[in-house]
Amino acid sequence: xxxxxxxxxxxxxxxxxxxxxxxxxxxxxxxxxxxxxxxxxxxxxxxxxxxxxxxxxxxxxxxxxxxxxxxxxxxxxxxxxxxxxxxxxxxxxxxxxxxxxxxxxxxxxxxxxxxxxxxxxxxxxxxxxxxxxxxxxxxxxxxxxxxxxxxxxxxxxxxxxxxxxxxxxxxxxxxxxxxxxxxxxxxxxxxxxxxxxxxxxxxxxxxxxxxxxxxxxxxxxxxxxxxxxxxxxxxxxxxxxxxxxxxxxxxxxxxxxxxxxxxxxxx
Length: 267
Prior knowledge:
By secondary structure, the chain is of the alpha/beta class. The protein has 8 helices and 8 strands, in the order E-H-E-E-E-H-E-H-E-H-E-H-H-E-H-H. Helices cover about 30% and strands about 10% of the residues. It has a 6-stranded parallel β-sheet with strand order 1-2-5-6-7-8. Strands 3-4 form a two-stranded antiparallel ribbon. Strand 1, helix 1 (about 20-35) and strand 2 form a beta-alpha-beta unit. The radius of gyration is 19 Å and the shape is globular.
């Protein structure tokens, strides 16, 4: 017996070159055709900033390798997103990688409020203020990279090791669970939806086995005391296509000079 479509929750994202309101519907229709679906459960704006639309390129670049940007405002894009709900092509719409001021900007101008905000969130980047903000506005916060995305294209010597962290390992040992299960349970207890990525059946099954235990208040305090470190920001790259680092060995954010770059705000 096959799985019913109603038993699946399928999400996709609007890519950065398709922020023009007139491009939103064609972009979604292409995703639906690729996925062989009639509708999505959730459709997100991938980033608040836009790339230029140039010859079908996903990452349009100048001769020096820098991104060619667009100045389309995300609130204009949001109007196009609302039209998708009107057409019944997606049940809910939301945002990804927006800061709280940008979310408020969308809410103030929106006819349909964002249902979800998807952001990087894990034991090293806990997003407490953003979680409180979302909960106070009836928005679901979804954590991408809840296990720190170990297979990401950019990794640096300064990045912490989730699976080798002594505090997390001690908590995992106490509960007879894996570090991954502790990291995911941490999100669940804070009212956050975690979306770990895996292609390994054993780990997919393990990631779901987090509802038969609870973290104590001391466990939460221990996790919340970990040094804050963000890992999910794409780095700028030089002519040799290697990431550019600052004097402390930290990557220089690729999109930091865009007027709608979200991560200059604390949350």
